[in-house]
């Protein structure tokens, strides 16, 4: 098998796949996508909510392109995803009366609403979508089950030292695109440092996943599948936002090297009687600790320590009373907990033991505001899972087309801090590929 390519792409998520697509369209370069897992797709296998609004999931200031260019690229990404029969539009803005009342209610509580056209394919359909994306790539070699351990920078090429099973192997390329996603963000940070690529820390999103009975949110999610609400808390002046709502969905865990985080998804065909969404507090740190990744990692480890190696969950009823949740009372009817059964088996525990006071203040204040806009959110049975953390906080200064300080080395996607979702990651991959074609092929 070939081990020498014009372009090597690390990561088979949306950033990597859309970059390869662009390269195939505009060049005859030999391309390899390398991924540590054996099924190439990265985060495309998760849920597949697609937000088509440039204010969602796109790190504008990190992409170095005009709004017009980003909008055009978003349109191209949209054409690809919406051409799959599995993708369905899940927003309905036709009921103006509902929409006006909802927006007014948010504004009355100083909450910003972003209305986006949203599509969804569902975790159960994701392999078909990935297959569709993959089969469009005719000239790209997939090197799967290859974990890139380190990258050697040579005068005219890059050598990727990989581990395949128990064997060491290598791939070399003239041009490199690194797109390892959030789970690979720590690896990228260490590897970039070894290569001499500078980085600094941006804000990190830390919070909880809220799960509640479907009927509470349904009056809103019927029209706005994934409501995007932004809050500034009055106590600390911090930013909190809702994120990734999954009507009829499930809470899931996300595995990192030393801990689990919580997340959520939903299937297209089989719905649960719950809805979940994330509530995220955006946090910036200055001296003496600006390392937001380290801070997030410590919090994640702390929750996993408290949860006996698992994330934790707490009923709102227990949180209000200032007590931890326990197995014995988790389903108590007399406490009204039977209205919502957890879709994920986390360890009953105590939010207030794992998060600093400032984060707790911000999350609780936001929950109370949300309950005024959508009454019922603070029902005692509502479950608060933690930790949910988004590791797209590392920032790598790049030149035009996301090229790092090293010539011919580009970065893209969530792990490089260039996006915060499938559509944004795909756009960043296309931008990098455009640069590769324009400058080097
Ligand atoms: C449960 C869950 C639900 C989600 N739901 C949605 C949603 O509904 N909508 C949405 O927009 N986003 C969602 N996301 C986020 C979405 O998955 C990411 O934003 C997106 O996949 C980022 O794309 P990427 O290309 O940057 O990285 P990824 O898709 O993460 O791909 C990176 C790839 O790089 C590989 N990799 C990393 N390090 C190495 C290495 N050293 N060697 C070889 N390979 C490596 C990884 O295995 C991975 O396959 C969800 C995420 C999760 C976990």
Spatial order of strands in the largest sheet: 5-13-14-17-12-20-18-19
Are there runs of 5+ residues with pLDDT below 50, and where?
Answer: none
Radius of gyration: 22 Å
* Silhouette: globular
How far apart lie the N and C ends?
Answer: 23 Å
Per DSSP E runs of 2 or more residues, the count of β-strands stands at: 22
The number of distinct structural domains comes to: 2
Largest sheet: 8 strands, mixed
Helix content: 25-40%
Mean pLDDT: 96
Number of helices: 12
Distinct bound molecules? flavin-adenine dinucleotide
Q: Structural class of the secondary elements?
A: alpha+beta
β-strand amount = 25-35%
Structure description:
With 441 residues, the chain is an alpha+beta fold. The protein has two domains: 4-86 and 121-199 and 396-440, FAD/NAD(P)-binding domain, CATH 3.50.50; 97-116 and 203-390, no CATH class. It is 31% helix and 28% strand. The strands form five sheets. It has an eight-stranded mixed sheet. Strands 1, 2, 7, 8, 9, 10 and 22 form a seven-stranded mixed sheet that branches. Strands 3-6-4 form a three-stranded antiparallel sheet, covered by helices on one side. Helix 9 links the parallel strand 18 and strand 19. Helix 3 (67-82) packs across helix 12 (422-440). Flavin-adenine dinucleotide is lined by residues 10-16, 34-37, 42-43, 46-49, 57, 147-148, 179-184, 187, 244, 252, 254, 263, 265, 413-415, 421-422, 425.
